[in-house]
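From the shared-data thread, chain only:
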Amino acid sequence: MNDRQLRNYKKYTLVLLLVTVGALIVCAAAFSFKRAAQAASVGPEPVVTDHYTPKQAASQETPAPGKASPSPRPQEAPAGYVVALRNGRICAYKQGQAGPVLISSAEPAHLPPGDLELLQAGIPAGSLAEARAILEDYE
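Structure, as tokens:
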């Protein structure tokens, strides 16, 4: 190999080395900007839509594993709605009416035993909106 070819290889190697170092610097800067952006976002924003009602506790009160499940007892709803399991479907009924007002698309077979007991006994709801929120908890 002559001296001229050796200089050309050195030149190309130096150019590739500079390009690689530049790419590493750009990647490091992009990573630090991404971390700064993630640190700036404190938490998720609350989701509020027409079909979502935020609340602190879920309507179904499933006991922790290992604890005895309280025996469900039917309760009277003050305004007249009950969410219950009838004919294999989770439905909301208005007191005094035979047919359901709302029907859930959720499969009761996938629910925990504690939730099934609550639904078989009936969960009282004060209004149609509250009954809808209870149904949405099971979907």
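The longest strand covers residues 81-86.
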